[in-house]
Amino acid sequence: MGVSISITKTLSYKHFMVAAGSVGIYFLLKKAKEKIQFQIQKMCYEIESQQCEIKKQRRPKFLILLRHGESEANIDPHVYTHKADNQIELTEKGKKQASKLGEILNKLIDKNSKITMYVSPLKRAMQTAQILEQYLNVENKIVDPRLREQEWGNLQKFQLDKAKSLQVLNERKLVSRLFYRFETGESGCDAYNRVSSFWETLFRDMDNPNNQRNNNNNSNRIFVIVSHGIIQRLLVFRYLRADVENYDTMPNPSNCETWILKLNSKGRYDFHDKIIMEGIE
């Protein structure tokens, strides 16, 4: 009986050691698996980062941002009180500004360049784009509502009342142009949000392999954005991720003022040149 107990203890000990060894192997394998998974994730991240950098280098060489030509409301702001913002048209001077800008860009841009143009649906921006198309080789034109001007409200009736108009302007100054929301309209932040969304779409379009086929250096791809004063400012403001405090001091571009951004060696856009329409009557 003593022998039997001894054998049982010996067998139990052996079973315990086998079980302990199995558990140890299990944890070793689990740790090895986790390490391999981490290495794979790290490798995937590095590959993805490299691909991202390659995509950036293949983006269009130039990004051109411009404001529409002079509009009816630029001459008389009260036009907003009886004509819908989206229906306001260019003046004759505005059409001349767009034509002059088209001539300038035609000389600056290589004739073999393939241009993708993004346009606000508001009539004054559409008219500006149509005039520019007479001078540029626009391969693809996309009308994007996110590029519409900041909405100051349906038929800005507050402008008809001097006291109410002064109140709105004072409140806007107090709150700041970025945060003040117009009645039945939107705040600068609302416009900022849709501009942010537009940038995401723009980069997807830039990085679309179908747009990059046979264009390894992208020297012949140019993106043009035709929008409005506030939106043009917000586009640059958002891209640079500028401090909110600086927004109110950022000057509004003049009619048909054009900002040319150029792709640098790191795949980022830097300010390259500015075109201002002067001496046109």
**Helix fraction?**
40-55%
* Radius of gyration over C-alpha positions, nearest whole angstrom: 30 Å
Largest sheet: 6 strands, mixed
Assign an overall shape: extended
- At CATH level 2, the architecture of the largest domain is 3-Layer(aba) Sandwich
Which features does this protein show?
281 residues; alpha/beta; Rossmann fold; 6-stranded mixed sheet; 6 strands; 14% strand; catalytic activity; His_Pase_superF_clade-1
Structure notes:
The protein has 281 residues and is an alpha/beta fold. The chain folds into two domains: 1-57; 61-275, Phosphoglycerate mutase-like (Rossmann fold, 3-Layer(aba) Sandwich), CATH 3.40.50. Helix content is 49%, strand content 14%. The protein has helices spanning 2-57, 72-75, 92-108, 123-132, 162-175, 188-207, 209-212, 229-240; strands at residues 62-67, 114-119, 138-143, 221-227, 258-263, 269-275. Strands 3-2-4-1-5-6 form a six-stranded mixed beta sheet. The longest helix has 56 residues, at 2-57. It is extended and about 100 Å long.
Quick take:
The protein is an alpha/beta fold. The chain has 8 helices and 6 strands. It has 2 domains: 1-57; 61-275, Rossmann fold.
